[in-house]
Amino acid sequence: MIKTFLITDIGRKRKTNQDFVYTSEEPVGNLPNLFIVADGMGGHNAGDFASKLTVETLISEISASFEKNPVIIFDKAISAANQVILKKAAETPGMEGMGTTVVVATCLGRYLQVANVGDSRLYVVGKEIRQITQDHSLVEEMVRVGTISREEARNHPDKNIITRAIGAMDTVEADHFAVELEDGDIVLMCTDGLTNMLEDEEIRMIMEGGRDIVEKAQLLVDAANANGGRDNISVVLIEQAGL
Questions:
Q1: Is pLDDT above 80 for 149?
Q2: Which CATH number applies to 2-240: 3.30.450.40, 3.40.50.920, 3.90.220.20, 3.60.40.10?
């Protein structure tokens, strides 16, 4: 038994919401369920268009896929979405350079299969909080090679520069992760409008204070807005009963 809840909020500073979120507890193609979070980039309405079109393309490609392996399903769908965004950007005035992050996941029993491009994240939250995805960002690369510390990264002026995105290059490479879930684990998928406003441990403690995933998600959005709400905030929570 799987339960999900999603919420997306414009935040306190932005005039539009460029995030796009999708959940299905029912099968999509050969996958038993499907969860997607995308955070668009681009001027005017290009960012929200890019995230929406990417999610719609992923759903369409996954629905039609004959593949059984979720890694291959995700890879082919993400590559197709990249081509769709590139083509649309090339032929539509005002949409040049648009793109989007994406994190996509499916629950296969107690196993979670994840793919990501960009800096939207997936966490597993239980007694501790674990970030499963790795950000494709300039600042994250600097942390990895030791140029700056994790603490310095949080407020670095180049924090918004991402190194991989749907629509940025002719080809795109997603990272893939397989995670075994334990009793009581909740999966959190989110855009950086949440993680730039809250530390990981704050996120875990806020979630601990919620009675159910609906309240947990709302508390996260409220806290991100209370801390400044500088960007759109999107949250997907997934929990499984009887793992």
A1: no
A2: 3.60.40.10
Question: Which pLDDT tens digit goes with each residue over 42-65?
Answer: 765 699 999 999 999 999 999 999
pTM (whole model) above 0.85? yes
To 10 degrees, what angle do helices 200-208 and 213-226 make? 140
What single-letter amino acid sits at 239? E
Tell me the CA distances in angstroms from 188 to 161, 184, 234, one per residue in order.
23, 13, 10
The pLDDT of residue 242 is above 70: no
Side chain identity at residue 26, one-letter code: E
Domain ranges of the chain: 2-240
- Mean of the per-residue pLDDT values of the chain: 93
- The arithmetic mean of pLDDT across residues 134-159, rounded, is 76
Question: Residue 194 is which amino acid?
Answer: L
CB distance 87 to 79 below 8 Å: no
